[in-house]
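User: Good morning. I'm curious how pyridoxal-5'-phosphate would be positioned relative to this chain. Could you predict the structure with it bound?
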Amino acid sequence: METAIAKSLKQVIDKVNSAIKNSTKTSRCTIVGASKTKPLELLQQAYDAGLRHFGENYVDEIVTKAPKLPQDIKWHYIGHLQTNKIKQVLVPNLYMLETIDSIKLATKVNKECQKLSKKLKVLIQVKTSTEDTKSGVSTEDAPALVEFIMTQCPNLEFSGLMTIGYEGDENAFIQLYDLKIEICEKFKLNKDEIELSMGMSQDFEKAILYGSTNVRIGTTIFGAREYPMKAQCKEEHIDVAETKQNEQQSQKKETETQQEGKKSE
Ligand SMILES: *Cc1c(COP(=O)(O)O)cnc(C)c1O
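Assistant: Good morning! Here's the predicted structure, ligand included:
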């Protein structure tokens, strides 16, 4: 029998593919399963349903989960990274660190990667809202950090920009897209190769319309998190209803989704 997660994932793939078709700003998008707080069995189910990119927010969780799951998983670290946890977060199959937000952090991550002879893809986390609890560099400071990584951090590969922002905040999406264009022009980078990580369960389709190439989706794939993360309790209730609805819809759409699914992997 097909798992609930497989059904939800199919529906997400379907929506991602339609959003890509309707977007003039991107022609591809990776789905990253944001699996924080979720047990191994559920990650394995998502893996069995075809998901290969997973994102964790907490170093302790990625350290516990990564060795116990298939090694072809491409892990993204999407949480705030403290410098004393860098060594641990560098699990063998860490694919991308999405949250570089200072020269100090870039320097230290580069140094640890050097020791392991590892080249690591990194995104710069940009603060696109005025809410001061969110980490990230300002849009003004981002180009200097890109330049630092490109010139001073040989073991880091600057791969794009990431933002969290407020749910559905078009302004955040627009700011990040414009910043990507600015950076690509300034540093002569190919804009088709530079990632924009934005969009979550509630707003990923919109984010893709605005150019996202990397959506981080938690509750819509894995179901509501059982214990509230920080101040997200209110959102969780919406997500529960959403997920149930999604499951019902995805049952109907199953056959058409199967074909579509291949494109976004
Ligand atoms: C939890 C989390 C997500 C996923 O959030 P959902 O609303 O559950 O899809 C995405 N990005 C980051 C940084 C997160 O912490």
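The longest helix spans residues 233-260. The longest strand covers residues 94-100.
Let me know if you'd like a different ligand tried.
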